[in-house]
Amino acid sequence: MNVFDRRYEMMPRAELEQLQLERLQALLVRLKRNVRRAREKIGDTRVESLADLARLPFTTPEDMVDSFPYGMFALPMREIIRLHTTVGPQGKPLVIGHTRNDLAQWGRLVARQLVAIGVTANDVVQMCFGGGVYGAAGYLFGAQVIEASVIAEDSAHVDYQIATLQNFQPTVLITTPGNALDLMQVMEQRRLDPQSLHIRTVLLSRPVDHETRERLAAGLFARVQCNFGLGEILNPGLCVECSAGHFHVHEDHFLAEVQDGELVLTTLCREALPLLRYRTRVRCELTREKCSCGRSGARIVPGERLDGRLRVNETPLYEGQIAGVLARTKAAGQPFTFTVSERRIVVSVEISDDLFADAVGLIEELTREIESEFLARLGIEADVRFISPRSRAGVDTELDADSKTED
Ligand SMILES: [Zn+2]
């Protein structure tokens, strides 16, 4: 059976809950001693059983923004050996720190996930992530723990990825859904038979719908598994997708609750940045019914974001950030609408009839300005369109720089 840490992953429920209670009590001691904000909120609340959890205060993403950068760290910076950032409310940065123990633990938690999907020391694992080291870091730690061979490729270069798949014959591919779809598409265009490659399993960095999973499984001729994680808690390494297709939270490390339909997590062991009852802003269903795989950790079905967070080309994005980018251009203050697709954002900016009628050069300049601001500020590609206020009144007028140039 594919279980890395049988003792903890399959721990009988009563024993697991006793372990959680002890770790929760130790967490409260650490929080009260080392984090002022937590000490003030927790006060004299005592925890005698897991049911007392409900009496403890929540931590919110806004708390993390308020205490940016290090206000919620429980240890001095000399103990912190790794930092990474993620995106919080309205695009504000959040910073997460790790001690040496946190990183070692991260590797062991991701190893659980890799073993669950059948990765062994005999596998060659190809990882394709763009934009910084963090996307791949957790997977790298996990693969090191189980001593699989790792080869990393940048997701920006599909050609190199395909060459690596052909030359090094990786058996496991870990990447984003967007990159997996790109790979599949390019292989189809070149009539490259996926059966000529050696990929057995694809691990996607986030959940996808059933249809996408089936398409990728057929197009890459491999079993497709998904990860679910959260930058503020741990991603990857929060849970494992088992052979029965369920996400099990590693409940010896993360105490999971659902409050008002929202996933709430408490980090039980993390040293650098422990979070008590963290409101993840992710809709979720949770059950502790027994699973045929034998794991005892809670099963979750993560749903949509509850805070309006969008995603373009794997980059998280909030609506306020779009207005923020436009505010830096000559289109500042103009009404706009937008739609997002997997890869790009289409922004429609309203401009006055005067501009609409006669300022071709200006429209082209503005288009370039807005597109380059989106790329520079948010790292995403934007298609900019301009609409006349009259189009809102039902008059069909729309133009963009491209169509105007053709006139
Ligand atoms: Zn299971």
From the structure above, extract its key features:
GMP Synthetase, Chain A, domain 3; 14 helices; alpha/beta; single chain; six-stranded antiparallel beta sheet; 407 residues; globular; Rossmann fold
Report on the structure:
The protein is α/β, with parallel strands linked by helices. The chain has two domains: 6-308, Rossmann fold (3-Layer(aba) Sandwich); 311-406, GMP Synthetase, Chain A, domain 3 (2-Layer Sandwich), CATH 3.30.300. The chain contains 14 helices and 19 strands. The protein has helices at 6-9, 13-34, 36-42, 61-66, 100-116, 134-145, 158-167, 177-189, 210-220, 319-327, 353-358, 360-378, 389-392, 401-406; strands at residues 80-87, 93-99, 124-128, 149-153, 172-175, 201-204, 223-226, 239-241, 247-249, 254-259, 262-267, 278-287, 299-305, 310-312, 315-317, 336-340, 344-350, 381-387, 398-399. The strands form five sheets. The protein has a six-stranded antiparallel sheet with strand order 8-9-13-12-11-10. It has a five-stranded parallel sheet with strand order 4-3-5-6-7, with helices on both faces. Strands 16-17-18-19 form a four-stranded mixed sheet. β10 and β11 (262-267) form a beta hairpin. α5 crosses α6 (134-145). The longest helix is centred in the first third of the chain and has 22 residues, at 13-34. The model is unreliable at 394-407 (pLDDT under 50). Bound molecules: zinc ion (ZN). The site of zinc ion (ZN) has 7 residues, from loops.
Query: From the 3D coordinates, which CATH architecture of the largest domain would you assign?
Result: 3-Layer(aba) Sandwich
The percent range for helix content is 25-40%
Mean pLDDT: 91
Ligand list: zinc ion
Corresponding CATH superfamily of the largest domain: ANL, N-terminal domain
Computed Rg = 24 Å
* Beta-strand proportion: 15-25%
Number of DSSP E strands:
19
The quaternary state of the protein chains shown equals single chain
CATH class of the largest domain: Alpha Beta
Q: Overall 3D geometry?
A: globular
According to CATH, the fold-level topology of the largest domain is: Rossmann fold
Q: List the total number of helices.
A: 14
* Class by alpha and beta content: alpha/beta
Count of distinct structural domains: 2
> What composes the largest sheet?
6 strands, antiparallel
Strand order of the largest sheet: 8-9-13-12-11-10
**Unreliable residue runs:** 394-407
Q: Report how far the terminal alpha carbons are from each other.
A: 66 Å
